[in-house]
Specification:
heterotrimer; A: mainly alpha; C: about 650 residues
């Protein structure tokens, strides 16, 4: 058993090496991976809360520890301290207190209510991509929306895969009545009016990241099921399955230990495209107003606002280019993965 | 083979029933149904959007605060909500009698007989007979078209509330999809023109994307990894990542003649009817094309990517197959090998996709139809959902379901025809 | 919140704008014959039955009427007006029906049709809101104010040439009371009366069931339909048969069947044989030969583009942003398109946030007030709305009904913090949210419809600064409404339009506070208000009614079930410079585009000048942007 795993590991290694030689996809992967990892640390990079602040000898870490009232630092504001102003004030006073702000000191939520923010500010040194219709920084929102979009797509895809493999695999493996029955269920299920489901649920509870994932999964697992069913159906008739069964392996073991590794190729090659689908799905949901609740930053919402203010070009341009760059990188990865996983060599014919 | 497809077609029946039951149940759960909407219309004033305070309300309303119970009963009967869900479903299917032309009659106190105008000055006599209501015409004979029944919930000690109505079997199985709540027209009448418009756009767009994507995909496959491959990928995915509706709006503002260049009309499926009817045949064709350019661009732009990549991958896959290598080994010309063998086989997956694409074409066009002010099928369906126009919603979903079921079978047939190796059992 | 008041507005709008004044007296009868010679006059009916000669008996019988004074002519139509031309108006919805009554007929398009194609018994004066003749020349109100008589103008004709008779009024009332027209509010409104009685060929009377000053308006404002057609059908047949077909009307316009193009457009055509055409009170109104309604659904940018391209004649700018940022295009700069901000006395309505006073946390007045003090609408007006608005501090902002003693709320966080402390919200947790002594976090949910988020996210941030967690979610309109009606909400963003005659009972009476499905959204209960409401209905003296409403407004402001928003008392409009219009441009109380249909006219010369200017690229004179006719008029008359 362990021997077989070793073999498949080495195959994976080979494929990885192959993948690395496909520069376009590889670099896209590296870049996207870095960006995505970075996006988890966005509060440290793009935020209006200070990273570190030293006030009268004491150190504070507002990014990590959260809310500090402005009054704690003798700032005359009712609520939370406005660190940007604090920094400017201390610097001009030349006091011993100091503050380290994130690289990009704006949060995706602060709007015209914070003094100094204006709506429809065109792109400039302070607001790299301008501000939107309530004076929120477009760049900050873009970054946070990136994290949400990718996470949404990843979680959604993994979940769909899980269900797809489980149900589709069983359908292909067992076949017969079971298969026939589930095919009907799937056909019926796929007629589910998605929009209604969302309307019903959102009238009861406030949609959240996981709720949306849940709703989308309800409808989306079907695609993967078809793929897996075909794959398991084909593999089932191969000799190694019969051999494993004759050795007394349980169906469960045969399915997941023997067939699944052999059915991995479509799973992995399809993955990037499923991610693209997930990103687009969230964009259109948000655009239609059935997505994440405001003020969550999202590309769909930004696109919507941009199109309503079409004369303010940066508001349209920003989400579209973000969407474009992300999608194209994922697609390049997808192409490379596909090539790396395919045993046949795609090359010029002669 | 034939038996396989016959079985497939027979299997559509349970699927169809299952789907419609599912949809029907979901609809019942949606908050704020047609009943509430009507109440809202009657009771609510101007719940407006925007900061535009003070403009006149969309909706006018009556002078009182709570609708009387009799009015609610009437509305409930009209929408069929006086029946349990399963009956409503069966009525909708057309296998349970539908009550039509119902009118309420009240027997107050000891009255046992009431005369009721049932339209066109025809009066029927209703006679209370224990737990039954008899309906008699002017000659005193029991009516065979009008029926009566007592509304137990509305009746009390002082009065007996009854309804007089006719029944008919009219549902989807008899070709009757009901009457739309918002358009006040038969659903089929509402759907037919919109379906045509969407099919027209959808098929044009589909055709367009096929004639662009297949050659492009072939070219990309043959030049896999080249600069052309890379650049065309960028272009195709740029097009894919710009949502069609966004592009449509931008194009309309730029080229519609309102603000910048006056090249194309500002939306609409064609010129206004009164203009359209004066056009010659050639004029009509020109007018139609002129109106369709922008929507078609917006419509098909996002489908380019998928098809192109599908074509490319499928061809790549085929080129590396053994039979192609064998063909080369036999010394056949490269052109002939590719064009005769590889491409023919690569079109298989694309051909099998046709069925599925049709469904997408119809349902997925709401936003573009909205941007271009085209009364299409997608917009109708979406709006019906927001308006809780159940007959339209159900009709819309049923059509989508049927199309999907049929197109699945079509895909299989297409697959079997194109690829002789495929055998269905 | 004052939704039901809209009904009165409907009557007013209909009567004020659309036909201004109905049957005149003698001159009308003399001239009418000249143009519509085919019409046979009924000279046989005795004067007592309302026939010719009734005018002489009227005073003796206790009837009153109103005669237009010559100096008022301009308000009943500008004598410079010419007939002719086409007016194209874009509407956002194709009406589900062309009927004016019954199911699905209570949209603004239907009331517009009703106003232009049908008439009611009486109208209201465009300046003073007094009763003026329409189909009825005279009317009488019994001493106990429970019974009304109307005398119909014997000259009044349906478009098929039939006479308008008392029977028509009865048949119309019957239709409204027929439950099979599926419009229950009709039965509510007209169920306040007994069945009208034909007292003579031209005289009809009706008895109200309960005393209310509104009854006369309700009944007199009912659009009359022809009995000849109504008597052949019942309610459900009416719904079916007249779905997209007009019953003959008495009004100045008709809709021909071929002009109804489903989901695309419908066109009203002026009737040259309109019976009242020579009455000076009607002579200069309804000037356009055709009024075309073009449908563009749910796509405001496209409507604006179409206007800019010249495919529509008139455009109302609803958002401040659009007005400031988007209305300086070439056609405006060159004066081809006129740009105006027209002030009027149109009721501002109410906007803002309504609290659910039945449950935590807004059952506590201190929390409600704190919200109000923290809601910095001045800042939003400055930063987001280009200071286009004024602040609302009354249910009847800017009208005579506003209580001048209401607190003029301004942003004052200190007061808010103090109030919140008093209410028990003293500390903040590590996320910065306020926590009550009993451990509850001050957190609630606001459901909005898509597209409104820009109006609420700044408020969310304002609340956040002071530790109040207002969570926002999108909801579909129907679900939102259902939640509202089932009181399943904490706070609700509202935006109701106002009425010329307020009708606060439906939203403020305490008996409604604990019931679902009515307009007392916040659960408002006050004994004194209940008393006042009862008095209000039976008070026929307008001055006293103003006092009553002011007192109610004061109590309302004190109990504070809502944090008021912003208001404006003008319309922002753009239109192509080819029309003539009276100086005031819009009606005193209607204040919007609907005056255009009736009081504006098409000017050939202006059209020529416009065409010329557009071909040569030259400028046309631009008018003053602010049209202050009504404010000036008010000042002049009140001095």
């Amino acid at each position: 058993m362990s021997e077989q795993q070793e073999i498949s590991l080495s195959i994976l290694k080979k494929r990885w090496l192959k993948f690395k030689t496909l520069k376009r996809g590889y670099y896209s992967f590296v870049l996207l991976a870095i960006l995505y990892v970075l996006s988890w640390f966005l509060p440290l990079l793009v935020n209006n809360r200070a990273l570190v602040l030293s006030y009268e000898g004491e150190m504070y870490f507002p990014v990590i520890s959260g809310y500090y009232a402005g009054s704690e630092f003798e700032q005359d504001v009712p609520g939370e301290a406005i660190y940007r102003e604090l920094q400017a004030a201390w610097e001009s006073e030349g006091s011993d207190n100091w503050i380290i702000m994130p690289v990009y000191p704006y949060s995706p939520y602060e709007d015209i209510t914070v003094a100094g923010n204006k709506m429809y500010d065109p792109p400039s040194n302070t607001h790299w991509l301008g501000t939107d219709n309530t004076g929120r920084d477009v760049f900050a929102r873009l970054c946070y929306a990136f994290n949400i979009s990718i996470s949404f797509a990843l979680v959604l895809t993994v979940l769909n895969y899980f269900i797809g493999v489980l149900i589709g695999g069983s359908m292909g493996y067992f076949g017969g009545k079971f298969d026939l029955f589930f095919q009907r269920i799937i056909e019926i299920w796929s007629s589910l009016p998605m929009l209604f489901v969302i309307i019903i649920i959102s009238s009861i509870i406030r949609p959240s990241f996981f709720l949306l994932i849940f709703i989308y999964t309800i409808v989306n697992w079907i695609g993967m099921t078809y793929l897996m069913r075909a794959e398991f159906y084909r593999e089932k008739s191969k000799d190694y399955v019969a051999a494993a069964l004759s050795m007394g392996q349980t169906n469960f073991k045969v399915m997941f230990k023997h067939i699944l590794p052999n059915a991995m190729v479509p799973i992995i090659t399809f993955f990037p495209f499923a991610v693209v689908g997930g990103i687009s799905a969230l964009v259109s949901l948000d655009y239609l107003g059935f997505g994440m609740p405001p003020p969550t930053p999202s590309w769909g919402q930004m696109l919507d606002v941009g199109l309503q203010n079409i004369t303010k070009a940066w508001m349209v341009f920003a989400p579209i280019s973000a969407l474009f760059s992300t999608l194209i990188m994922v697609v390049f990865i997808g192409e490379a993965v596909r090539e790396a996983f395919d045993p046949k060599v795609y090359s010029r014919l002669r | 083979m034939t038996t396989y497809f016959i079985r497939r077609i027979l299997l559509m029946i349970p699927t169809f029933l299952g789907s419609t039951i599912l949809i029907f149940v979901i609809l019942q759960m949606a908050p704020g149904g047609p009943l509430e909407r009507t109440i809202q219309q009657l009771q609510a004033g101007a719940m407006q959007q925007g900061e535009s305070v003070g403009s006149v309300g969309d909706i006018m309303s009556g002078g009182s605060s709570v609708l009387p119970e009799s009015a609610m009963r009437e509305l409930r009967r009209f929408y069929g909500f006086d029946k349990p869900v399963y009956q409503r479903y069966l009525i909708w299917l057309g296998v349970w009698p539908r009550e039509i032309k119902h009118r309420e009659v009240e027997f107050s106190g000891d009255t046992k007989e009431v005369s009721k105008n049932v339209g066109r000055g025809t009066y029927m006599t209703l006679r209370l007979d224990g737990e039954q209501v008899g309906v008699y015409d002017k000659d005193g004979l029991t009516s065979d078209i009008w029926k009566g029944s007592i509304d137990q919930e509305a009746s009390d000690d002082d009065k007996v509330v009854a309804t007089i109505f006719q029944t008919e079997f009219s549902g989807i199985l008899t070709g009757n999809l009901g009457t739309s709540y918002t358009y006040d027209q038969p659903v089929t009448e509402v759907m037919a023109p919109r379906f045509k418009i969407s099919m027209f756009f959808g098929l044009t767009g589909l055709f367009l994307s096929y004639i662009v994507c297949i050659p492009l995909g072939i070219r990309k496959a043959l030049n896999h990894g080249s600069a052309f491959d890379f650049l065309s990928s960028v272009v195709v995915f740029a097009a894919y990542s710009i949502p069609g509706y966004a592009l449509g709006m931008v194009l309309l503002v730029l080229l519609g003649g309102g603000s910048f260049w006056d090249i194309f009309p500002l939306g609409g499926f064609r010129s206004p009817t009164e203009v359209w009817e004066t056009l010659t045949l050639w004029g009509k064709i020109k007018d139609q094309v002129w109106h369709m350019v922008l929507p078609i661009i917006a419509w098909s732009i996002s489908s380019f990517a998928g098809l192109t990549i599908l074509m490319k991958n499928s061809l790549l896959e085929n080129i590396s197959q053994d039979y192609i290598r064998t063909a080369f080994a036999k010394g056949l010309q490269e052109k002939r090998v590719i064009w005769v063998h590889a491409i023919r086989n690569s079109i298989i997956p694309i051909a099998s996709g046709i069925g599925g694409v049709i469904g997408v074409v119809i349902a997925g066009s709401y936003l573009i139809e909205k941007v271009f002010n085209i009364d299409g099928f997608g917009k109708m369906g979406f709006q019906a959902i927001l308006d809780r126009d159940y007959p339209i919603t159900l009709g819309f979903l049923v059509i989508v379901v049927v199309i999907r079921l049929v197109s699945n079978i079509l895909s299989d047939i297409a697959l079997a025809t194109v690829d002789p190796r495929i055998r269905f059992k | 919140m004052k939704r039901n008041q809209i009904f009165v507005l409907l009557i007013l709008a209909v009567s004020l704008v659309f036909w201004s004044c109905g049957g005149g007296d003698n001159q009308a009868t003399e001239n009418a014959g000249a143009e519509t010679s085919a019409i046979v006059k009924d000279m046989d009916s005795p004067a007592e039955a309302g026939g010719y000669g009734f005018e002489k008996l009227a005073e003796e019988l206790g009837y009153s009427t109103y005669e237009m004074k010559p100096q008022e002519q301009i308000f009943f139509g500008d004598p410079r007006a010419k007939k002719g031309g086409l007016f194209r108006h874009i509407t956002t919805r194709f009406p589900a029906t062309m009927r004016t009554e019954g199911q699905n007929a209570n949209y603004v398009e239907n009331s517009t049709i009703a106003g232009l194609c049908y008439e009611s018994l009486i109208g209201t004066h465009p300046l003073t809101l007094e009763f003026i003749p329409a189909l009825a020349t005279h009317w009488k109100i019994s001493d106990d104010k429970m019974k009304f008589w109307f005398r119909i103008n014997p000259d009044a004709r349906w478009s098929d040439g039939r006479e308008v008779i008392a029977e028509d009024v009865v048949a119309t009332w019957d239709l409204h009371m027929d439950e099979t027209i599926l419009s229950p509010s009709d039965q509510l409104t007209f169920g306040k009366f007994e069945r009208p009685v034909v007292e003579g060929k031209y005289i009809v009377s009706v008895v109200a069931k309960e005393l209310s000053w509104r009854n006369f308006l309700y009944f007199g404002g009912m659009s009359i339909l022809p009995s000849y057609y109504l008597n052949q059908i019942d309610g459900s047949e009416y719904l079916k048969e007249y779905q997209f077909k007009m019953m003959p009307g008495t009004g100045p316009y008709e809709i021909k069947e071929e002009d109804i193009i489903n989901q695309e457009s419908f066109t009203l055509t002026r009737r040259t044989d309109y019976w009242g055409i020579n009455d000076p009170a009607n002579k200069y109104t309804s000037n356009f030969d055709k009024i075309k309604f073009i449908v563009v659904k749910d796509n405001n940018p496209l409507i604006f583009e179409k206007f800019k391209k010249g495919e529509a004649d008139f455009y109302t700018v609803s958002a401040a942003r659009e007005w400031v940022e988007e209305t300086d295009f070439e056609s405006v700069q060159k004066g081809w398109v006129q740009k105006h901000k027209i002030y009027s006395e149109k009721p501002a309505g109410t906007s803002g946030y309504a609290f659910n006073m039945r449950k935590w946390p807004f059952d506590d007045k201190r929390v409600r007030m704190a919200f109000t003090y923290l809601y910095n609408r001045e800042k939003m007006n400055e930063e987001m709305y280009y200071s286009e608005y004024s602040m609302m501090n009354s249910l009847y902002s800017g009208s005579v009904y506003e209580n001048p003693n209401n607190e003029k709320v301004v942003y004052s966080p200190e007061k808010a913090v103090k109030l919140l402390k008093e209410a028990g919200y003293k500390t903040r947790n590590e996320d910065g949210w306020l926590v009550h002594d009993d451990g509850r976090i001050l957190r609630f949910e606001l459901a909005i419809m898509k597209g409104l988020d820009y109006m609420v996210t700044p408020v969310q941030q304002m609340m956040k600064e002071y530790g109040i967690d207002m969570q926002i979610k999108y909801i579909d309109g129907n679900a939102n409404w259902k939640n509202l009606m089932e009181r399943n909400f904490t706070i609700f963003m509202q935006n109701w339009s106002g009425l010329v005659f307020p009708n606060p009972e439906t939203s403020l009476h305490s008996s409604l506070a604990d019931q679902d499905n009515n307009n007392n959204i916040g659960g408002f209960k006050d004994a004194r208000v209940d008393e006042l409401l009862e008095e209000y209905d039976v008070t026929f003296d307008q001055a006293r009614r103003v006092e009553i409403i002011r007192e109610i407004d004061g109590i309302y402001s004190d109990i504070h079930p809502a944090a008021w928003g912003i208001a404006r008392n003008y319309q922002r409009v753009l239109f192509w410079d080819k029309f003539g219009y009276p100086e005031y441009m819009v009606g005193r109380y209607t204040g919007d585009y609907r005056t255009v249909f009736t009081h504006w006219w098409f000017e050939d010369d202006k059209q020529k000048a416009l065409d010329e200017a557009m071909t040569n690229g030259t400028d046309l004179p631009k008018g003053e942007i602010n049209v202050m006719f009504w404010p000036d008029y008010l000042k002049a008359t009140s001095n």
